[in-house]
Amino acid sequence: MSIEGLLEELKSISFKKLFDLSGKKAIVTGGGGGICSAIAYGLAEFGADIALIDINAENLEKVKNFLKERFPERKVLAFVADVCSYQEVSKVVEDIVKEFNRIDILVNCHGIGQWVPAEIMRLDDWDKMIRTNLTSVFIMCQIVGKYMIKQRYGKIINIASMSGHIVNTPQPQAHYNTSKAGVIHLTKSLAAEWAKYNVYVNSVSPGYTVTPLVEKLLKQEPKYAEIWRSMIPLGRFAKPYDIVGVVIFLASDASNYITGEDIIVDGGYTIL
Description:
The structure is a single chain. The chain is an alpha/beta fold. It has a single domain (20-271), classed as NAD(P)-binding Rossmann-like Domain (Rossmann fold). It has ten helices and seven strands. It has helices at 3-10, 15-18, 34-45, 57-70, 86-100, 123-151, 174-194, 212-220, 222-230, 244-251, and strands spanning 25-29, 49-54, 76-80, 105-108, 154-159, 199-206, 262-265. Strands 3-2-1-4-5-6-7 form a seven-stranded parallel beta sheet, sandwiched between helices. The protein is globular, with a radius of gyration of 19 Å.
């Protein structure tokens, strides 16, 4: 292509509109949580209708009402469900499709954490971590993915963690690190299989982010706050809204040549 041809082609492109999510239908799991509610807010602001899924009914209702108040023109649904249950997820996704007619975006944002030394970790702890943080992501991706494959389009964003790339210190969390590494590789595997259906699968790996739960932890264990902050080149923890921009990007047409990638949002923590 000549430079003249390229410039002519650019006339037909609005890069601003590439980020527009107007009319898109999105599911956000863990919708009552810190990072997840911020992501739902961002998707709604950019034009998407939102279906929230969470096991915490009280927080879920608060986020749903907040989004409806802030974006009265958007449709906001909320479903209490256990994403570890294939049956519950199947039913909820079926209900969402009945309401929305399609699903364009899936953000798997749910998860749990735990600190326990590997040598004394109970097998129940390991199984619960892997099922909640990894198996449930596969369940969501498989069930929603079937609809996306049928409609020949979809954007899946799995929220992993920088812990899927490194072994954090000083906390012992072998099962958590392993679960998040699994999410990253599951993302790549699904992206390879589903690219032919125009279904994009990417992941985002946040660093230390001050959610309500983490804020409570840091107050209880101030020594960890000092250690972790000292290892972040940008010198601060992330806020939930620091994770939103990259999710908007991956959910939009601006990322239509990206699949199977993991984007780390950690203030530089993993580069040292």
